[in-house]
């Protein structure tokens, strides 16, 4: 099996060269995996988080969409067996949590995070608006 990661024009040229070098008399199965989350997932995730932010108070506080995104991502990572790093803050005031940004998630990972946010919201009384989140396709 040959794995090719496309990150730049040089990688694309190498992949094209690989394809041109294949012997078509010996058919091969080619699988292309787009590992970055897509725009549709991004929209759904942010719409879900917007509804969580609008409807859920956490320990008596209303939190912004950005804060909910960070909290949900950190909790999802822990459930998925990963640990966000907790490190002393650079300015010496408190502790900062470092974790993978959602923009770096694969399609599969983002789908899992979306499912996690849906479950969390449902368990915390969010009344989902299908039209707002899924464009009425849910």
Written description of the protein model:
This protein has about 140 residues and is mainly alpha-helical. The protein has a domain at about 40-135: NinB (NinB fold, Orthogonal Bundle). It has helices at about 10-20, 40-55, 65-80, 105-125, 130-135; strands at about 55-60, 60, 85-90, 95-100. A two-stranded antiparallel ribbon has the order 1-2. Strands 3-4 form a two-stranded antiparallel sheet. β1 and β2 form a beta hairpin. α2 packs across α3 (about 65-80) and α2 (about 40-55) packs parallel to α4. The two termini are about 40 Å apart.
Q: What would you say the CATH architecture of the domain at 39-134 is?
A: Orthogonal Bundle
Mind telling me the C-alpha Rg? Answer: 20 Å
Helix content, binned percent:
40-55%
Q: Report the CATH C-level class of the domain at 39-134.
A: Mainly Alpha
Biggest β-sheet: strands ordered side by side in the sheet:
1-2
Mean pLDDT: 84
Q: Termini, distance in Å?
A: 38 Å
Name the overall outline: elongated
Which spans have pLDDT < 50 for at least 5 consecutive residues? none
Give the beta-strand count: 4
Question: Could you give a short account of the major beta sheet?
Answer: 2 strands, antiparallel
Kindly report the name of the CATH homologous superfamily of the domain at 39-134: NinB
Oligomeric state of the chains? single chain
